[in-house]
Amino acid sequence: MSVISIENLVKTFGGVRALDGLDLTVEPGEVHGFLGPNGSGKSTTIRILLGLLRRDSGQVRILDGDPWRDAVTLHRRLAYVPGDVNLWPNLSGGEAIDLFGALRGGLDRRRRDELLRRFDLDPTKKCRTYSKGNRQKVAIVAAFASDVELYVLDEPTSGLDPLMEAVFQEEVRQLTQAGASVLLSSHVLAEVEALCDRVSIIREGRIVESGTLSELRHLARTTVTVETGRPATGLTELPGVHEVRPVDGRVRLEVEPEHLDALLAHLVRFEVRALTSTPPTLEELFLRHYGEAVNGDRQATTGGTR
Amino acid sequence: MSAFTGTGWLTRLALRRDRVRLAIWTLGSPLIGYALAESVASIYPDEQNRIGYAEVANTSVVARAFNGPVASTDLGAVVVTETYLTLAVLAALLSTFAVVRHTRQNEETGRAELLGAAAVGRYALLTAALVVVVGANVLAGALLALAFVGAGLPAAGSVAAAAAIVGVGLAFTGVAAVTAQLSVTSRGANALAAATVGVAFLLRATGDVLGQRAADAVRLDSAWPTWLSPLGWGTQIRAFGGERWWVLALPVALLVVGVAGAYALAERRDLGAGLLAARRGPATAAAGLLSPAGLTWRLHRGALTGWAVAVAVLGLAMGLAGNEVDDMIADNPAAAEAIAQLGGGADLVDAFLAAMLALFALTLGAYVVQALLRVRGDESDGILEPLLATAVSRYRWLGTQVAGAVLGALALMLLAGATTGLGYGLAVGDPVGWTVELTGAALLWLPALLVVAGVVTALFGALPRLSVALSWAVLIVFLLLGQLGAALDLPQAALNLSPYTHVPSVPAVDVTVLPLVVLTAVAAALLALGLTTFRRRDTPT
């Protein structure tokens, strides 16, 4: 039974189709990365999952319930960290944490104090005096100190420094070791790469890619840099080879994974002296889908699923 | 680069940011002055009326405490006495908020940091704020003087009366310049300065209550506490009563001292820092906070306490004044008619007391709107979203907010009835009887307040983005129908739109139950509409 299963979800605001047939599945015990540019529909999806927005059409199940109809009972079993935390200015951070915990159905005091220490957060300061990063910590501590089955994190580390980012990653691993599932929407690709079992990339209200990181890598090209004794010719005519260009007396090119074998067979005829092969980084995977605005039609002609 | 570099540029920026506020301020205060002058002139047209007014005003403890002394029996002096408190407090608060807005608020939001990194001197931000605020005060004062002259008052007195208001504005500009240096938050700086306004009011009231009445009773010599108060200085100028121009030197001196102090403090502190540390809170929440109701109480208790103090002071004062109603308006049919119209019934004192309760109920309508619209503020600020992601249903959350606003208003309304009754009862020697009677009469206004809560809730549920503007608009319509409807001879059908029209003006008339039941039913329907529409909609920012 999936923790989250969304099929063909549609949500429009006025004339704008924010979600346009989105599908997403999160399995129990996994950390699922949810990637996409601003305005692609990540937060809208999360708000629908939390029963804050109504869907126009499509199937949405979360923890085996309907997010709109069963909001209250579901919310006892999940915790949410928004990307931009606003708090009551005249409450202290500790009070806000306790309040969120109590309204969710109680929190683990020992965990709370441990998290405060680990995130180095002073709970006696009034919320109005917190910086963005500290407001974010309040929400993170309140969520992580709750013993729930699912954590919904919407860009939770925006504003955290690298030290705190490391603490955050350790804490997320602890949650999953205890059996919880996590939906992590993020812009920090290193964080996603470090934490996520599976990744879904959203673009203009649809999921354009979904799978484990190695699955996604198989869909993308490997970058090969090769140094040969004689000038390598005929590379551009090979199937599945792209972007051939000379660099400092070597040749750099991109090749689709299924054509790697044929490429190597071709190269050996030119006395290979050095060869490096780099699998695509998550950033490259990511840019393939939403780099069009940046890179123009180069990406558009090569994007896998278009 | 000098410490003042960039002042001109920042001044223009401040003018641009505040063009609407400044326009409302500089035009609004003269308009209020003109309207009040006209209405006072129509109520006290001849010398005989005004001698009576001056005698009562300089004798009555309540009138002395609120309005201060009457300088002479000239029409202008009566106008000044009737308008001074409103205009002076307005000038004090507007100056305070404007100074803080352009100094501490800029630091708090980080805008000052951006500006400070540009070619802007250390004093430029404070100087620009002072230029704008002093300029606005002087401009508003000049227009106010013209307004008084336009209302037919002598020029010298008009200028003195307007200068008195400008003086108050300048004095509190100096105060706010200092508080903006002391507190780290703009809220704290505003609160400190507003507290100073409160202390100034109390000092002046004390001095005027303790003052010595001259033998002819038309002049009151205030006691020394008045001279400690910037609000007192304005009355001591004695506009239209042999002006004492030298008193104007006092607020100017306070401005100079305040500004010098502020520059000295700005020199000694870091950007963003204050001399008063930000207050800390508890590290863990008390058990009482940990529910929607506990949170609601926590968020409203500060405002509620402030309202309660104001309501109790006003209630007692109005009640004590009730006994003087006969004297005050015995030979003034215009004022008597105004009270009878608002209160209804035959007996003038009963009508006065009923009218006071009606005014309290209208004012507390504003409390309901303000307290309940917090729901929309929380929604648009994004505070609501994580809250609704907890195991709190939308019904429970909104229901708690409505209950909090209505119970707060009910408590204030009962307090208003009790204190008015106590004040009047003390004056006529039956405190217990009148306290009980007027507390009961106050309770009758609950259905009208419920309707106000229902309107706000329904607007919040059905039209969230428009709910703030529409809620206030509806309350203002209720207010206008209640205050002006009868005077303007509007048809009864129009008057019936306001819930306030339907509440019987006890003690002036007898209790009738049916309208109260109907009002409660209307309120229930509106609340149900608000709750169901809110349950069914998205939560837009």
From TrEMBL, chain A:
PROSITE patterns: ABC_TRANSPORTER_1, ABC_TRANSPORTER_2. Residues 4-229 form the ABC transporter domain. GO terms for cellular component: plasma membrane. It is found in: Cell membrane. It is a peripheral membrane protein. Keywords: Antibiotic resistance, ATP-binding, Nucleotide-binding, Transport. InterPro entries: AAA+_ATPase, ABC_transporter-like_ATP-bd, ABC_transporter-like_CS, ABC_transporter_ATP-binding, DrrA1/2-like_C, P-loop_NTPase. One of its GO terms (molecular function) is ATP hydrolysis activity. GO terms for biological process: response to antibiotic. CDD domains: ABC_DR_subfamily_A (cd03230). Belongs to the ABC transporter superfamily. This is ABC transporter ATP-binding protein. The lineage of its organism: Bacteria, Bacillati, Actinomycetota, Actinomycetes, Micromonosporales.
TrEMBL record, chain B:
The keyword Transmembrane helix applies. Keywords: Membrane, Transmembrane, Transmembrane helix. It comes from the Bacteria. The chain crosses the membrane at residues 20-37, 84-102, 123-149, 155-177, 189-207, 245-266, 304-322, 351-373, 402-424, 444-463, 470-488, 508-531. This is Exporter of polyketide antibiotics. The lineage of its organism: Bacteria, Bacillati, Actinomycetota, Actinomycetes, Micromonosporales.
